[in-house]
Amino acid sequence: LNKPEWYLTQVLMWIGNHAKFLDDKIQPILDKAGSSVNAGLEFSRALVMLILEKLAADIPCLLYDDALFCHLVDEVLLFERELYSVHGYLSSFPSCMHILSEESCFQRWLTVEKKFALQKMDSMLSSEAAWVSQYKDITDVDEMKVPDCAETFMTLLLVITDRYKNLPTASRKLQFLGLQKELVDDFRIRLTQVMKEETRASLGFRYCAVLNAVNYIATVLADWADNV
Q1: Are residues 18 and 89 in the same domain?
Q2: A GO term (biological process) for this protein (predicted)?
């Protein structure tokens, strides 16, 4: 259960190792018979079906072990990325994202994603470098004087988007968007608390850093507004 990468990698190897044989030997036979079947894609589809069976059997056994469940999700997302980008798998075919979209598994994924995002926010705001820009010494890069915590937070949101963007239904994507909105609101509250602590020194370093953070986040969210 703790090594899903073993069978996921094995399947990717099989697909890669058989590609030339299927294209050179099997595809011409299908073409000659007037079939529209793509031998390589059908081979991939059959192997993915085996993975879906394996996932359906494994997931209930590790649903409440955060470490194992997160590792499985991470490995499945890596597998899907390679399957589509390297091997040309079709989005209309069955995929692992359908298994991750099933109610019990999906709700668990959302819960764990939120838990780790909040932990990440705790650590980024308690860091010594939280309010310092990592580009502070490069003036042409650092026009907005973005504190490290704001940049790390927006990267966190971007990573979450990247993880859920291939979910098969809009309703599931919207649930993840709801999580991101919760995180933005949580971060807003945290920034407000820091600002209240600094009101006596409104031209102080941290107060200005909070304002720069808010400006940066608002700007980036506005840029993302066109991303459906």
Answers
A1: yes
A2: endoplasmic reticulum to Golgi vesicle-mediated transport
**CA–CA separation, 218 vs 212, rounded Å?**
10
Pair 116, 172 in one domain? yes
Identify the band that residue 139 occupies on the pLDDT scale cut at 50, 70 and 90.
low
Same domain? 85 vs 170? no
What whole-number distance in Å separates Cα of residue 175 and Cα of residue 178? 5
Residue 132, number of CB atoms within 10 A of its CB: 15
Residues 159 and 208 in one domain: yes
Q: Which helix (H) or strand (E) holds 223?
A: helix 205-224
Q: Is residue 144 within 8 Å of residue 209, measured between CB atoms? A: no
At residue 13, the 3 state secondary structure works out as: helix
pTM for the predicted model, two decimal places: 0.86
Cβ count within 10 A of residue 14:
13
Of all residues in the chain, the percent with pLDDT exceeding 70 is 95
Give the domain extent around 39: 4-101
Could you tell me if 216 and 144 are in contact, meaning their C-beta atoms sit under 8 angstroms apart?
Answer: yes
How many domains does the chain fold into? Answer: 2
Residue that terminates a domain, selected from 68, 84, 101: 101
